[in-house]
Amino acid sequence: MKKLTILYISGILLGSMTACTKDFEEINTNPNVVEKPNANFIFSKAQLDGLNNNYFATNILECGGMIQHYATYKEASGAGDKYLSNEVYYSAYFNQVYPTAINETEIVINTLKDTPTDSNRLNIARIWKAYLYHRVTDLYGDIPYSEAAKANSAQIFLPKYDTQEFIYKDLLKELDEAATALDPAKTSFGKADFIYDGDVAKWKKFSYSLMLRLGLRLSKVDPALSKTWVTKAIAGGVILNTADNAIMKYTDGPNDINRNPVGFDSRKQDFTAGSFGQKNVEGGKLGKTFIDLLKATADPRISVYAGVWQGTSQNTTLAIQKGFPNGTKTAPTAVEQGTYSEPNQSTVFKYDAPLVLISNAETNLYLAEAAARGWYIGETDKDLYEKGIKASFLNMGIYGISYAITDATAYLTLNPFNAAGSFEEKMNQIHTQIYIALFVDEQEVYANWRRTGYPVLVPVNFPGNVTNGTIPRRFKYPTTEYSVNSSNLAEAIKRQGEDTFTTKMWWDK
Q1: Is the distance from CB of 36 to CB of 291 less than 8 angstroms?
Q2: Paired strand residues for 144
Q3: Helix (H, G, I), strand (E, B), or coil: what is residue 34?
Q4: Contact (Cβ atoms closer than 8 angstroms) between residue 68 and residue 286
Q5: Most buried of 4, 12, 238, 470, CB within 10 angstroms?
Q6: How far is Cα 142 from Cα 160, in angstroms, rounded to an integer?
Q7: pLDDT of 218 strictly over 60
Q8: pLDDT, tens digit, for every residue of 302-345?
Q9: How far apart are CA 121 and CA 79, in angstroms?
């Protein structure tokens, strides 16, 4: 009887186990986990995160101060203004871009790579990946690239650092392959793409325009390779018309991520509500070098870019603008502080202002350099220089049609292109215009300045600076990398050079 009872109980248990096993997979599946990522949603997030990445710390406090677009009397926040070492600011971009935008873009690529009908979405994601990585390597030099964002797909948790040379050559290859593979007959991201609404033809032009930018970045380290990629980009077709400009769209809410980080992050961190130019948290102002240049050339863009607070509104007339000197720690009185120019909160600092990634102003000016080098014979450097300025003037209209500057005649008459000048004189004129036209994209202006040396900037020599009074050439690596990924970082430093602000990266040598 005891034996029968044991067998009976065992049978019940086995039956129960069978029943549990039958529905085991369904019962143990988390209903809140998405088994297949939504590529459209993640790509949208990757675009937002890629451009929201610590704008104030990276673009204003660091890059913007170094290139003298911005200045501040304060010491801690004057890291770029005074060439000081502030780990919070120089590490911010690196620390945020990998777990957000780069990881998200990698997820999109992995989700789409085995589906031929999704080739357009795949290749647009590849182009976006190239855009993200060129921003990172241009700040730090050698970085994790080929093994980065592979924790889930390949269980690589400590990625190696690739050389900038390898990264740049691979980015150019990726841009070429992705642009070639784009097919207007296939579907794309549609409205999930906040830049082009999934327009494949425009993404192709963006890819070749980015290729032009990166190709010229190699002009100092490898002129022959630079020429190869520049001519390939031109042949592929770069952005030449306003309608093709790569512009990120924003709205004023409902969430902070929907707002333009140029205005939102900056006004949150420094140019806060109620300051009216007198009580800025970090003491930030537009730099004297920048404002003086705009005033000396009677540049009408100054009224779009800048304003001086008078009461509760900004006066944008040219005559009243005044830039703050770089490299000073003398604190002005609140009243005096209010007399200096700040970014215009009705245009560049507006929460729902569009953000330009690459435009026909930039491409025409780069084509002017290519023409000056003899790498492009389709038009003269003079004509392309003038086209770049005219495009920049008209592009002010992204902030509202009333801001578009429709007549550049007076400006070009006052500031004519020296067609008979030396190559260096032409480079100075062309890249001074890049310095002006690309305002708010401080990362790109900083990178282009390091390559060309134009416009000529007079460094400051603030007491205690860490560069011996020279403008920094790169950002240092985050201190977290020394403890988390130490062996790979050590190899990169051994190869690239000491981890300092003055070590030149590959394309800058």
Answers
A1: no
A2: 161
A3: coil
A4: no
A5: 238
A6: 10
A7: yes
A8: 999 999 999 999 999 999 999 999 999 999 999 999 999 999 99
A9: 40
CA distance 12 to 405: 85
> Under DSSP, is residue 152 helix (H, G, I), strand (E, B) or coil?
helix
**What was the pLDDT predicted at 152?**
87
- The per-residue pLDDT for range 141-199, each reduced to its tens digit, is 999 999 999 998 899 999 999 999 999 999 999 999 999 999 999 999 999 999 999 99
Burial class of residue 9 (count of CB atoms within 10 Å of its CB; 0-12, 13-18, 19+):
exposed
Q: Give dist(CA 365, CA 388) in Å, integer.
A: 5
**Percentage of residues of the chain with pLDDT beyond 70:** 93
Residue whose pair of structure tokens reads 């390779």 in the numeric block: 225
Q: List C-alpha distances in Å: 462 to 61, 74, 83, 85, 331.
A: 16, 12, 8, 12, 15
The whole-angstrom separation of Cα 27 and Cα 334 is 65
Burial bucket for residue 240 (CB in 10 Å: 0-12, 13-18, 19+): middle
454: Cβ–Cβ under 8 A, 6 or more apart, which residues?
Answer: 427, 428, 430, 431, 432, 435
Give whole-number Cα distances, 108 to 40, 119, 178, 502, in Å. Answer: 8, 12, 15, 36
Would residue 504 be called left, alpha or beta, if left means φ above 0 and alpha means ψ between -120 and 50 degrees? Answer: beta
Q: Quote the tokens at residue 85.
A: 């070492």
Helices (H) and strands (E) counted in the chain, each on its own, are 25, 9
Q: What is the pLDDT of residue 462?
A: 97
Q: What is the pTM of this model?
A: 0.93
Q: Pull the structure tokens for residue 104.
A: 């998200």
- Residue 471 phi/psi, 5° resolution? -70, 130
The tokens for 300 are 């009408």
User: What is the structure's pLDDT at 28?
Assistant: 53
Question: Contact 395/245 with Cβ under 8 angstroms?
Answer: yes
Rounded Cα distance between 30 and 309, Å, is 55
Q: How many C-beta neighbours within 10 Å does residue 295 have?
A: 17
